Amino acid sequence: MRPSRRLLVAASLIALASLGLVVFLDAPALAVEAMWGVLAILAAADMLLTPGRKRFVLDAPATRELFVGEAAELEFRLRPAAEERGPQPGSAMARIAWPPGLDGPPQFVLVPVGQGSRATVTVRAGRRGHFPIGEVAILRSSRLGLVDMVAAYPCETRLVVVPNVRAITSGEIDVQIATEAFGSRASLMRGEGSEFHQLRDFVAGMDSRTIDYKRSARHGALVAREMRAEKNHNVVLALDNGHLMREEIAGLPKIDHMINAALALGWAGIQGGDLVGLYAFDARPRLYLPPRGGRHAFAQLRSKAAELTYRSIETNHTLAMTHLGQRLSRRCLVVVFSDFVDTTTAELLVENVEVLNRHHVVAFVSTRDPMLQAYGRRTATDLGEVAAAVAAAGLERERRLVLDRLARLGVFVVDAEPGGITARLVSTYLNIKARELI
Q1: How crowded is residue 178: how many other Cβ atoms within 10 Å of its Cβ?
Q2: How many C-beta neighbours within 10 Å does residue 113 have?
């Protein structure tokens, strides 16, 4: 416990009154002692009448899973330990030291509601990982308001922040796959592929080259062979987890934007009948999950991606791409999620992607920083802003040169702002699959 503001004000007024009585009125010391004695008795009585920490229980929210970049509402309740019999806590102030990676209010008010006091707090997750809250400090006023009762209550709540698969759970990826499969690209996915799909009756307007004459003779009617794009391709998601990927864009590190897009592509690949694997690297290879199919493979893919830690070391693209090339025994689609600063730092990246592209189909995914484009649209009012706009334009130009060079090498380049990466990446994958480039 600690003295409240009311007690400090009362003590200050009594001190001034005591000084005035002694100096100006020459009052006896007994009067001064009486005033201080009354204040001390009131403070002691207030402490004795106010229920202590053990008379209350803090109900904390249960452990829950939260998507990175999203917010969750947590409800806290301070109630009497003996329900309906014990004293009510009244209004109280709560304080939480949120772990790094969670963004929430440092303090909030518990409002009396029914049997106890409640508060709902909104917390946003900015990092992946496991975040225990630990304890909650509660400050209550005494009955007379002369003392502040401060107590720390243990809180077993643990927030598990995982990659954001909202695009998958909401059905957005399934809708996009269905649109591509039954829309303008349907003729590429079915009818012009190299894998046999089914036999169907030949009707006017169909290509006569699709007629299967042997089966037509057996059935006594014209039967056509329907083909489709080949399945069971290998797709490897190669995630760069170096220090450049820790830069925050739109409130999240680049690596989290990349993981979200990679998982969306993994779901699309598994739904399309392909085998999807995961590869993570920084200064050296860290993780390799062989391509597998089925929904159980996606669960493992998501679990391994959630376990990737944030690293502050420079990426070695030469070692990473060489190691990945040795791991791959058959032609597959390699999706490289990486980034670069300028043409000089990107030289090794381009060279190693070019080597990998000789034997496999490579797609390069990078995140465009909206801040660079904002500098170009901003009205400059001084020389500092002019210099910033020129520097941003130079970085954007160098970035475009590297991406154009990759495109000329035959690499599929996906460069978009964080909100548009997933849709463009899935569309690029479906286009590659429909053209049977793998």
Answers
A1: 12
A2: 10
Assign domain 166-170+231-434 to a CATH class: alpha beta
- Picking from 158, 164, 169, 165, the residue whose alpha carbon sits closest to that of residue 64 is 158
Euclidean distance between CA atoms 356 and 96, whole angstroms: 50
Annotation: CATH topology of 53-162: Immunoglobulin-like (2.60.40)
Kindly state the tokens that stand for 147.
Answer: 């003392």
Taking the CA atoms of 34, 36, 38 and 41 in sequence, report the sign of the dihedral they define: negative
How many residues make up the chain in this entry?
Answer: 438
Using CA atoms of 405, 414, 307, 248 in order, give the dihedral in degrees to the nearest 10: 90
Better-predicted residue by pLDDT, 296 or 181 = 296
The Cα 263–Cα 393 span in angstroms is: 32
Taking only the tens place, the pLDDT of each residue in 195-249 is 566 777 877 877 777 777 787 888 788 888 776 656 788 999 999 999 999 988 8
Is 263 strand, coil or helix?
A: helix
Give the tens place of pLDDT for each residue, 308-352. Answer: 999 989 999 999 999 999 999 889 999 999 988 877 778 889 999
| Sign for the pseudo-dihedral over CA of 291, 294, 297, 302 | positive
- Helix 5-23, helix 29-49: angle, nearest 10: 170
Please, what is the end-to-end C-alpha distance for the chain in angstroms?
A: 70
pLDDT digit string (tens) for 64-96? 899 999 999 999 998 888 765 667 778 888 999
Q: For the chain, which residues make up each domain, given as ranges? A: 2-49, 53-162, 166-170+231-434
